[in-house]
Design a protein that fits this description.
Number of domains: 1
Largest sheet: 5 strands, antiparallel
CATH architecture: Roll
Distance between the termini: 20 Å
Strand content: over 45%
Number of helices: 0
Order of helices and strands: EEEEE
Number of strands: 5
Helix content: under 10%
Radius of gyration: 10 Å
CATH class: Mainly Beta
Length: about 55
């Protein structure tokens, strides 16, 4: 079983979002690669670099 990275949405700036990994690293990413109903504070699971899923 592979270890998937978990991110928290820290900021949404137009077409980009800032995600924070569990280790504290920040990632700037296009919102077009993220779920459409994204909100600040949401937790996302990185399935691969092109697919992110909201965690419930």
């Amino acid at each position: 079983m592979e270890n998937k990275e978990i991110y928290v949405v820290k900021e949404i700036c137009g077409d980009y979002a800032v995600l924070q990994a569990e280790n504290g690293d920040l990632l700037d990413i296009s919102v077009f690669l993220l779920p459409y109903d994204l909100m600040i504070g949401d937790k996302l699971e990185c399935v691969n670099m092109l697919e992110y899923r909201k965690m419930s």
